Structures are given as C-alpha cells and as structure tokens.
From TrEMBL:
Organism this protein belongs to: Amphibalanus amphitrite (Striped barnacle)
Listed InterPro entries: MBTP1_N (IPR055143), MBTPS1_3rd (IPR057060), MBTPS1_4th (IPR057032), Peptidase_S8/S53_dom (IPR000209), Peptidase_S8/S53_dom_sf (IPR036852), Peptidase_S8_His-AS (IPR022398), Peptidase_S8_Ser-AS (IPR023828), Peptidase_S8_subtilisin-like (IPR050131)
Catalytic-site annotation from UniProt: 263, 294, 459
Keyword Zinc: no
Ranges of Acidic residues composition bias in the record: 152-198
Record EC number: 3.4.21.112
Major location category of this protein: endoplasmic reticulum
Protein name: Membrane-bound transcription factor site-1 protease
Annotated TM spans: 1126-1146
Amino acid sequence: MAGLRWCLVVLLAFLTALASLGDEVPGEGAVTDHEGHANCQPGVGQRVQVEFASSVVEHEYIVGFNNYYTKEARRNFITAALNHSGVVQWKILPRDNPAKHLPSDFDVLEIRESDPGTGLAALERHPNVRRVTRQRLVVRTLKFVSVNETELASEDAPEADEEEEDAGDAAEEGAEEPVEGSEEGDAAAVEEGDEEEVASVKFQPPRRSFTLGNKAFWHSTGRHNGRKLLKAVPRQVTSILQADRLWKQFGFTGKGVKVAIFDTGLKKGHPHFRRVKERTNWTSERTLDDAVGHGTFVTGVIASQADCLGFAPDAELHIFRIFTKKQSSFTSWFLDAFNYAILKKVHILNLSIGGPDFTDQPFVDKVWEITANGIIMVSAIGNDGPLYGTLNNPADQLDVIGVGGINFEDQIARFSSRGMTTWELPAGYGRVKPDLVTYGSAVRGSNVGGGCKTLSGTSVASPVVAGAVALLMSAVLHRGSVINPASVKQALMASARRLPGVSMYEQGAGKLDLIKAHHVLSRYKPQASLSPSYIDLTECHYMWPFCTQPLYHTGMPIIVNVTILNGMGVSGRIIEGPTWHPYPRQYGHLLQMSFSHSEVIWPWSGFLAVSIAVTEEGASWDGQVQGHVELTIESPPEDGDTEPRRSTVRLPVKAVIIATPPRSVRVLWDQYHNLRYPPGYFPRDILNTVHDPLDWLGDHIHTNFRDMYQSLRAHNYYVEVLGEPFTCFDAKNYGTLLIADPEEEYFPEEAAKLRRDVDEGLSVLIFAEWYNVPVMKKVKFFDENTKEWWIPDTGGANLPALTDLYNTLTVTDTSLGVLREWWIPDTGGANLPAQTDLEWWIPDTGGANLPALTDLYNTLTVTDTSLGVLREWWIPDTGGANLPALNDLLAAWGMAFSDQVVEGEYKFNDHDQYYASGTTLARFPAEGTVIRHTLNDQVSEILEGTKQTVPDAAILGLYQTRGAAGGGRIVLYGDSSCIDSNHNQKECFTLLSALLHFTSSGQLPSTLQPATTVPVQPVLELPERADGSNLHRHSKVLVNDLDGRTQRPLPPCMERLWAVPQPVNQSGPVNLYQSAKLLSVGLESPVLPLHNDQRDSLEEAQTTWPDPLEDLDSGPLGPSFRRPHLPTYGLVALLIASVCVLCYLYRKSRRPRRRRTKQAVVQQQQQQQRRALSASNGRVPVV
C-alpha cells in the first residue's frame, strides 16, 4: 500500500503543477496592455455600453431610384421631376467617398423651401423614383465600462455604474493618418493592400434585389443559490469553440472568404492582421484609423493571427470606416458603403451596431438588398438587457443573423437584449429573436496599439459568429450557391445547443456549436425550415410566455409568429398549404387554426403567423391536444436544375386545453392604444430619467410588463391581449379591462361601447401617467448626439382624448359612403390607411412601415458646425400618457385626471411604494372611495425650481357603477411605473392584486378602506391637448393632415378564416423538441473526407499559414507558457496512473507468502469445533 500511496501522491502533484501552469497563462480574464503584458488587475474587464440615437436631418431627403444609374442620369431624373413643381431652392449634395464615381440607386437632396411637399410629391410620381424619405443621423455612443470578472460571471450582479471611457483605449489612436489617395478629392477615402490598386476598381452591374411583382425568467438558468464552484475557463474564445480543431485537423483558416467589417476603422499595419485587402472611409473625416478602438477589437475577434486569436486569420478583410470619432453616421453613408460591399462581392458583413429605429426604410431596404445578393449579414441584437422587447435593428430582421451574448458559464448575459420583435406591435405578435447566442462576456480581442484587451457586449458576440461563419465558409466554398444566407443560418440554428431554463426570446435556437455546424453545413441539402421548428405550449421555460397559460374556448386567439427560412433560393412562395392536420387520438380536432403568411418569401425568408383558438366543442374539456401544420415551398430552379425546387415542412403543435374559466378571473389587456418610439417622441414616464428620456420600448404584456403578467398568473388570473379597438371584443367574457399608459386617441364608437359594457358588468382598471403642457414644453429634450430639441407630442397618458370621446354619446356610423382603403399586414399588425398622396407599403416581414414624413417641424434652428447639421426644437408627441384622451373616455362617469405631476414614497399595507411622476384625480364621484397621500410637486420643481408638496393628493379612486345589470367597477390610479419593469422602480403588484380583487368581486379589501373619506373637489384644472402636437403623424385614430384633430373612420374588426381541418390517423411524439429536426442531415455521422480541391487548399494553407499558437513561443512569456491541449493532460495522467497500477501489481506478485505454524492450525480447528457445538445446543463447553 505504501507504493500505491506514493504513486497517487506523485500523480496528484503532477496534475496540480499542470493546473497551476494553466492559471499563469495571460488571458484568463486578464486585461493586457498595448504590448500584450498582463496588467496587475487580472480580474477586471470592460463592458461595452451602447447609447443609440436616430433622428431626421433638416432639409435633407434621400431619393431612392428603382435601379442603379450614373450621376448624370440621376440628376436628370430629379431635374425633370422638380421643373414644374414650384420648388426652386434645391441641390444634390455631393458624396465624397470611394463610390462617388460609381452608379448608384440614390441621391441626397437638399430642399430649402418653407413647403417642400409639392416637390416631394413630384419626385414620388417620377417613374424612375422608388421612394423619397428623410435623411437620418445615426449616433452610437460607446462607453467602455470597467467591470469586475465576478460581475461578468454572475447574472445577478448589479449593473455597473457608468464611468469615463477608458483612456487606454484611445491613448495612441488620436493622431489622424496622413492623406492617402491619388487625387486630392479622394484623400483618406481608400487604402488598399498590395493585392489590388484603387485604379482597378471598375463598375460592374451588381446583382439586383428581387422585385416584388404584381419574477424574471432570465435568472432561471439552472444556477444554484449560495456557494458554487467557479470553473476556470480560458478566455481564448477560439479554443472554447474548438476552432483550432478545424485549423489543424482540416486546414481551414478562412482563406478565400471576403469579410466586410462596418465599424470605426482599423490602423494601418496592425501586427495582428495579415490579409487586410482594403480600408475605406465613408465619413466626413479625412482618416482611416480607428479612433475609438471598437473596430480594431471586432476585426481581431474575426481574423487576428497573433496573441488573441481570431477565427479566420486568412480571411480577406475589407474595413469600412462608417463612424466618426464622435461615433456619428448618416443613413446615406451606410447606403453608399452597402453598395460598395455588393460591388466587391464580399461573402460576410459584420455589423456590430444597432438601434431601435426600424422605420428607417432606406436602411432596411438596403439590408434586404445586401442579403438578396448572397451576402451573409451578422449583427448584434443590442445591450439593453435584461429587459424584454429591446431588440436592435438590423439584427431583428428576418434575413439577418441576430446574435445575443452569454458568459463562459453558458448563462445569458445580463446585458444581452431580449425578444420579441416589436415591428408587429400593437396588433400582432413579435417574432423569435435572437437567432442564436454565443460568448460575448469577457472575450479577448485586439487593441488599437497592439496586444489584447477584454470586452463584453453583444457587439463582441456578433464578430464571434461572423468569424465562425468565415471559418465554416472556407470549408464549403466548393459547394457554390448551396451556401447562402439562409443555409448558413439554418446550419447555425440546427446545430446550436439549447440552454436549459431559458426562453426562446433570450437564446433563440441556442448556443453556437462550431464543430456541429461544420458537420451540418458539409452535408446540407437545399431545403426550407421553420423557426421555431415546433409549437409546444406545454414546454416551459423555452416556450415562454405561451406555456404559462392554457387555452380555452372564447379566449382571444394566441398568435405564434414563425420565421420561414428558404435555403433553396433567394425567392420562393408557398404553393401548398398551410394545412391543419389534427390527431384525433390526441383530440387535435378541438383546436382551430388560422394562417397568414408572406406572399413572396424574399430575401431568403418570410413569416408564417399561426393563430390558435379552441373550438366550441372544447369548452368543457381538459387535457392535451396535438396535430401538425404542413406547407410546401417552391423556389425557381438553380445550378442547372430543370424543375423548380420544392420543400415540404411540418410544424408540430401541442397545447393544453382547460374548461373556460369564470368571467371574474379573466383580464383583457388593451394593447391597441399603446404607441411607441420610433417614430414619435414619447417621453419616459418618469421625469427624473436623464440618460434615456425617450420611451422607445414597445409596451406589451410580455415585454416591459412581463413581471406584472407573471404576478397575475401567480394569482390565477387569465390574461388576454386585445390588439383591436374596443368594438372588437365581447365584454361578457371578461371581468376586467386593464388599460396602462395609453398614448393613443379613442374612437367615439369605442367610448359608446365601453359605456354599455360597464353597465353590463365589465370593470375597468386604469394605470395612467402625467400630462402637463407647460411641463412638456419645459422638458423638451436636447439630444447632444443629434443636436436637436424634442418636445413631447403627449403627456404620460392621452387624457384629453378620452374626455372628448365620452362627451359624444350619440354615435354616427360613417363606415358607409366613405371612400377608404385598408392595407392589413398579414401578421395582424396595425391597420394603416392608404392615402391618395402617400403610399403605405407593408413588407412581407409583417412589420408596419410608416411613410416618410413630408415635412419637418418649422421651428427654431441653429447650425451645428461640428457635423454640418441643424439643431432643432421638438415638442414631445405626448406626455407620459395621453390624459386628455383618457378624460374624454371617463367623462360619462364624472371622472377625470388632473394636470398635476407628483412623486414621492408612501406605504400601502406595510409595503413601501414609490409614486413616480404620476398624476392625480381632478374629478371623481362623491360616493366613490379615494386614497390620498402627501407627495412632492414636480410641476413647481420643473417650472419654478422650487420644492413644494401636494398635501393629500388623490392618487387612487375606486367606484362601483350603478348599471341596469348590476354595473361594473372603475378604478383609477395615476402612475403606471410601478407595474412597468423597464423603470426598475418599486413594484406594486400587491396593490394590483387588491385592485383586481375589487374589480372582479366588488368587495373592497380592508387595505383599501381609508380612515376618512374626503371627496374630490372639482377645483383642479384638466389637461388640454398641446397645440402643435404631432401625434396625428403616428396615430391610428387621427388623420395625418394639417389639422391633426380629424379622426379616421373606425376600422373593421379582423375576421380570421379558420382552416378546414384534415385529420390524420397518427399519434404525436411526447417530446416535440427531440422529434422536430430542422434539417434533413445526419448530425452524428463523421466528417466527410476532403475533396481534391480541398486537399490542394489544405496543402497550400499548411505551407503558407503558420501555427496560430506559435506566436506565443516567440512572445515575451516564451514557449514555456504555451498551454497544451486538454487531451494532452488526459493522456499524461492516464499514463502515470497506468504505471502506478502496474508497479503495485508487480510488487504484490513478487511478495513471498507466509507459512502458517502448526500451533496456528490447531487453534483454527478448535474454533471451528466450538462454533459447531454452539449451533447445535447453544452451549459452548469449557476447556
């Protein structure tokens, strides 16, 4: 045993030495300086915080043409259109960039007229003009915030406070590069490698785009509370994803793949990159260098060949400097750069930027054109997590690979934005995004002056995927057009590893698996697929929120927005189906289905909106039901095919049905009357908000109100979403109508119907917000990025509109005899009217695209000499909510909100509550119950700079109506911030539960009974609609005209066409995730052998491309710090263990056996005799 113990001690010492050696390798969370040496603070990294702003530019318009034309031809078209329009003060702005001499499909036009409307209309009528939109200024502000490594590893860590930008990132990049180029006008525009000259650039007609003809689930990731063992992981992301396996085993290094990087530029001669083909500048600054550091880092993650290794070091890099030192850019800069990327025929385009403005139509159109030309676009989904509904554009587009971030413990990073997409709100339902996630926390990448640094953010995760795609493409370039944006996206999603306990709106298909993706892509066959690939309303947490509430008869249909990916071609269409096939053995016939889908699947993708409801036969049934949806997609023949390509896909469906719950526990959420930014300026509900004053997040029960939704479900309430006017629901099915923070106006027909519904027993619960016109003008927002002042179009809630609607109780039906045309998005989005002077175009992605604004606010402007744009004063479209509209709605019951704005803390049932910039009650029935608290007056603080209090402010009112059938109840509360997760305020879900108890049962809880009741005296002023508000530009109720007060006709209710069921005699699988495979390829089969052309490239790569790790041998640390591979550890340990065991067995076999003495034999015989006697009579004889 001594020998065995000695062997074990030696083995343990050896393994300890190996572990300590690995810990000394720099990069284990360390931040390195410009020379690559480890800093003294190995536990500190940096997180990228991104602030995005987008706004229109005064007097500038982008004129888009329907094809690519020369500069002279484009000028002739514009001149011909404006000749007789009455517009004389116009000019085409010059664009000084590498594409200025090439044909283009747009021009930037400046019109300095008081009324440019006639000229814009004339341009839109020209046969060669596709669209006229406003020029937009895009500002992305990057802040590198120092974050401790333990914070990066833990999702529960609080968000770091904002700090100053790291001085080390820009210490050496301040100097501008000398002017480069052959002509003075081309200075600092293009700098190419030795392999290509600027003079060789010739225009070739690019592949044109296809023309369309006639509490919080994010914390539930399988972690344990309390102590846990933190595993040591290498921060070299290429090693974790096993890129070195493809390098060494197969010789794939990204060679032959062209990668375009749209960012802040790259320094000339950076030691980390060997194949920089071209650097181009698209900004107004005369430099090509990276003055921010972000572009260098992103490029390093993709293709660095030294120190912090990239995935594809032999990829051909095309660097596009698209942001200035101040991190600003224009839409036109992007459009020119996109056109140039198409001309260069790049394979992959990484865009580690994003913003909420998906209404920038020229930008969205050009992204579609990029992917239609076969370019794979990878983009970050944003750093606005852990909030839901915070996806950034263009990552939220169907054809783009949207990437989220995780940490090295496979947990969703706290900063990573969450889905769903908000294009489809308020009437539809969002799509699943991100598409997949990968490492974006504490990742090492290249620094500006050399060496490495550590960053975190989805802008880090995006180049990880882009680099992985470049590496994968170098392995399958020989497959030609089979490898396209759709097939690559399909392969990445089919091979992704799902994270447990995380919803699809957080992780998409799951975590990137590079090796598995290589297996899939090597065997890929052109086909169509769906994302998600199945609908299982019983699977939590992945199918959140659909899995949290069962289906029942008379419930609002749920909408699951499925993405169609078409790897067969850039365009396609559904030729058969969708058809619903219920399984009678599993009661699938109790479900009914309705479908809407893209008429043309382009580019590479489309949508399938599945509406699911319960038939009348299932009104009293409880249990699971199953079936599947089937559809066939066809694309034109390619690559020598004689017949069109076809692919049939199935969408398995499983759901749980329960008996229809009683009316009292059913809550209807009003989604129709919520608006969002963009396009209007709707301020945040809390006036104390400084850093992010715009309310750009789409209000929805499953995004910013998701915590409230979870609380309601925990209290056994059933919550449904209304995406249509009040005239489109049966109030007899619901106990409470819940209205929170509305910005929209109300139709008179809605007000009249709501009055009847309340008389018949429907209760109304309203969470309002502030609305005060002087405050709105005072808090006009000056954006230092865009140099514009914004003033809200409404207050916190649109109260004036509600009052007007209820003053008109006699309703005239104007639906007949009125000429109107409604274009309804197939996804169920907002109904948009087709005007005679504007064209409303609904894309096949299902998002409603708002038309270009025909004029800008004629307000005070001053010139900003730094950017050449104009400062502008903008009035907000609303306050916190549209209180005038709410007051119109409540006037029939003698209720109204005031224009007071108050804030402060108070207690409810021993719970601390915070009233954040809310309003008070100005009118309320004397027989109602009113709750009062003394709060701070924010109006005097903002307007006069003095701090005053409002004693006994009426913040809550409860009233039982007296209808003919008993009447419902009405509850008014002046603040919605406590139920909105975006504001991070003290939640008031206990109060909400008490209020719902009153609205559903009519019993007033003791916690809501004040000691003394003081009626509301009608002395406070009511808020009035602000003059000059531009709410009509964004409203579904108001007409977009000069008056801004005219209402549209009431839109018709959506009529769903339920599919005829086609039962099939089969049973569905128990686990839909295991049975639903995205792609018809074998994922477990070995990697295919190399083709001859691959062998040639492998031999060439082995002779021209050195070992990616050999730079560590020559580095300052020497070869002794080179980390061996993990299999080496295992082999050495196994060898030592085997030697120890053999030594022990050998020594044991050679040890002589001891002989027993005669006395020992006699003693043993005596013991056996005593045991035998004891067993026979129980007594042992005494000797």
